[in-house]
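Run log // design_07
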């Protein structure tokens, strides 16, 4: 069985997301427009439980590693994130399915999380590439990935059906293992 690591620094702790601890996210998940650019629904207890169960199912199939986010600065749960679409043979995975409460946005929490995840992907899992898929309209998330060194590799046009029936286009960003040694100190300087 795949073992979910706990990733931690002075600011954030990423622990395995499961059906026991997701309840800490119920209030955050109700915030308006929290995941407006996602094809998932999380704003009710049942929809959030289904979202978490989907992540756990992917974990059981070794294609995802989901985390619950704890902000050590505020001593509060902030949201969740995961490694997904893990392709062990090709050594490529995605970081995504990330949502954090509005009071945590813009505080540096996301940069700390992404650093820990990139470090684990490149240095522990020894993967060759980390990808990010972002709704073309989600400018804040796109800028956040660009800020940590993600390179826009292309746009998948009208590839994902959203809950409201809109067909979104998805921006594909990537970071290569050989880019990590140069990016790592730059990210550390942001803490």
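design_07 sequence
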């Amino acid at each position: 069985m795949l073992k979910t690591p706990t990733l931690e620094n002075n600011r954030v702790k990423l622990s395995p997301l499961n059906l026991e601890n997701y309840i800490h996210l119920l209030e955050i998940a109700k915030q308006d427009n929290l995941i407006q650019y996602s094809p998932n629904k999380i704003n009710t207890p049942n929809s959030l439980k289904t979202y978490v169960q989907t992540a756990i199912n992917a974990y059981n199939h070794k294609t995802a590693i989901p985390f619950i986010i704890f902000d050590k600065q505020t001593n509060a749960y902030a949201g969740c994130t995961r490694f997904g679409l893990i392709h062990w043979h090709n050594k490529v995975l995605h970081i995504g399915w990330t949502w954090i409460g509005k009071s945590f946005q813009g505080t540096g929490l996301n940069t700390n999380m992404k650093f820990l995840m990139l470090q684990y992907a490149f240095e522990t899992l020894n993967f060759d590439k980390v990808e990010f898929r972002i709704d073309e309209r989600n400018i804040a998330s796109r800028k956040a990935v660009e800020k940590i060194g993600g390179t826009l590799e292309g746009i998948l046009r009208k590839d994902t059906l959203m809950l409201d029936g809109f067909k979104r286009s998805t921006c594909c960003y990537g970071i290569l293992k050989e880019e990590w040694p140069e990016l790592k100190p730059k990210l550390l300087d942001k803490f």
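The beta strands are 7-8, 12-16, 65-71, 76-87, 92-100, 129-135, 151-161, 167-176.
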